[in-house]
Queue: 2 jobs
Job 1
Amino acid sequence: MVDSLFEDQASGRSHPMPFTRIELAVLSIVEGNLAVLLGRRSEAPHKGKWALPGGVLRIDLDRDLDAAARRVANERLGVELPYLRQLRAVGGANRDPRAPWALSIAYRALVAIESIDPKAGKRLEALRWFAVDEVTGDTRLAFDHTDLIHAAAEAVRAEIERLELPFGFLPEKLTLGELQTCCEAILGRRLDKSSFRRRLDERRLLVPVPGEMRTGAFRPAQLYRRR
Amino acid sequence: MVDSLFEDQASGRSHPMPFTRIELAVLSIVEGNLAVLLGRRSEAPHKGKWALPGGVLRIDLDRDLDAAARRVANERLGVELPYLRQLRAVGGANRDPRAPWALSIAYRALVAIESIDPKAGKRLEALRWFAVDEVTGDTRLAFDHTDLIHAAAEAVRAEIERLELPFGFLPEKLTLGELQTCCEAILGRRLDKSSFRRRLDERRLLVPVPGEMRTGAFRPAQLYRRR
DNA sequence: TCAAAAGTGTTTGGGTTACACCCATGG
DNA sequence: CCATGGGTGTAACCCAAACACTTTTGA
């Protein structure tokens, strides 16, 4: 392994750069709970442990950080994730035995569970959904991924509280009841139907699709779409 | 310049790593307005332009990202900044002519204006405070620092709205009037005295220091300190 | 005694919760 | 006709804005 060096123009010395990766906190709703997609590592370091899917930043392939995150999503999970959002950067010495100093830029996304093909991905022997709230300090994840998962969950929950709806995750057309159930699953608590709907139409986020109804066991429900 | 390479364990190939820097958005209140500290670059690239102070990440010196930011604050500004908070990472090709791909981890901090020694720092021919709201697209800053400055201002304003007080910035003892004036300067709008104080003591953030009063031109004011 | 800032109380209004209630449908 | 979820209205409540008011000091 050769350390990459850059000239420090003032001192004339060169400095090695950190081993830089992208990590993805892909969240979804599984059985009514907010869940995160983890992969079991098939190689050292942390072989056999569960970890966020991720990959090395490729400066020859990635135009910028967001593009790097999309590429990693494609390679590891076989899925397009247009609604990725940066979570934060973590870096330090001894984070990763592959390098003296490792830096990770973590991204988060909400996805529909059907959109993930569990067979896809290299270097992971298995992919599995874990309920976010059962990933505790006891769950022995690789690296420092436990913190990242909770930060990602906190970020999406804060967005939902503010009624910033995850349109990248929602179906194009849905009923208000489905939307409420989805928000309740993310937040982990019940919402009041009346105030939920009032907040929604004050914000003019959705419009009814004329004539289109979801027909089920009981009274049909109006379908809505974005804007 | 030698690119630093890391082994890609699956493919057997090595990858060059990005040129990685720390940038600091140091904010304060200058003449009643939220202001950011910029340095005039004395060297290429962007020689002569104003930019956020920053420095190269040194994996031989910095234990982690937060430590790197504190070191850069020390070296460039000659000041200890214990209340630095990570803002975000930006990275891409062609961001910085010194390297094919440049990554910056931006930090933000609020500081008391007196704590900055404007003489300090290498590689900057001048340091100057700019009112945040006068840094627009027209102000031709180096790199992509205009965005970072506005994101930093937005972050501190959101904290003040939520009454998360910047104790690293505030004097140990202060009057409620001084605190209100300070918050008004950061937010750029007036606050109601009565509701400001009610919110403060609901949250139990401050306690009066018995007997200690600020005596001035008019009625003396009770001094308060944290918690 | 007046100006200016410290400090307090009261009213109002926006927005949310809680909850009651009607509607439409399949079984 | 009843269970179930869709859909709507209302009263109570919380919080903060607005603003009026009193207090205390130096000049």
Job 2
Amino acid sequence: MKSAKHELGQRIEHFKQECSKAGVRLTHQRLEVFREIAEACDHPDASTVHKRLRKTMPTISLDTVYRTLWLLDDLGLISTLGPTRERTRFDANLDCHHHFVCSRCGMTRDFSSEEFDDLDPPPSVKTFGRIEMTRVEVNGLCRNCIAENAKPER
Amino acid sequence: MKSAKHELGQRIEHFKQECSKAGVRLTHQRLEVFREIAEACDHPDASTVHKRLRKTMPTISLDTVYRTLWLLDDLGLISTLGPTRERTRFDANLDCHHHFVCSRCGMTRDFSSEEFDDLDPPPSVKTFGRIEMTRVEVNGLCRNCIAENAKPER
DNA sequence: TTAGGTGCAAATTCTTTGCACCCTG
DNA sequence: CAGGGTGCAAAGAATTTGCACCTAA
């Protein structure tokens, strides 16, 4: 719904404004990468975006897609699913629980909440498939990152 | 809380039972990998687990850690954060929204819910840091995976 | 004993980087 | 026109795999 056609034009306008605001050049490649992500509803990874774009831009390179995706992320125009630029992380806590994830360093901690354990997704979600578990992810800056907010991290 | 010391023994017992139930040998390496994950509260990645284990088992290899982690995951003894074995995925939907993620194939779809938009984490979460966003992740099997449930996927 | 498990090293796969040429502003 | 941006190819990381030896059952 949110990515509906009638909004796409506005979002592309916004993208153009943000580029010029940030002093970043508006290239054909950047525009198409943004459009592809904005139109997709399946949250593709870099290589999928590349594959799709090649149909209309046969010469676009995978590394440009990577560079552009991270640029858009830095500009706050797109975001990533799960902890950014992180490896797969493991969890041995099988009880129902929820996560706090630092959006800067990826620090992750469990917490529990009876209220959150009983969340009931809207009926429309059932059209996607069978629901097995519902979990809350809280994002924010961890104490550590707040403390060293001035220092570089990445 | 959930990983408190007094529970560790029970969890290791459970792990041993599951191994024998699955016909999988109980090796020193597997036990230590499981113990490390069960004791850690920071959801380490494979290489972090390896690094920690080398202090007490200098010869354990990184590939054994990988193999063991996925084995434990298959046995349902641990789980992963975010979409399993997936690359970084991107999201251009900046409005507040929530996700349905297929636990088998990783298919991800957005949905919205006013109720979920206003969730308020328990006060204890504030001790981790500053809260910026709260989002619900619904896990389950997507229609596609339900349909081809018999076929191999991975 | 003996098949499954491990360590090592090599192979894959994914992502990033250096550099020369191109195109936006 | 100038400097940022792109494509290409090569480098770097992360993860997986083949194989011979080892060990739990």
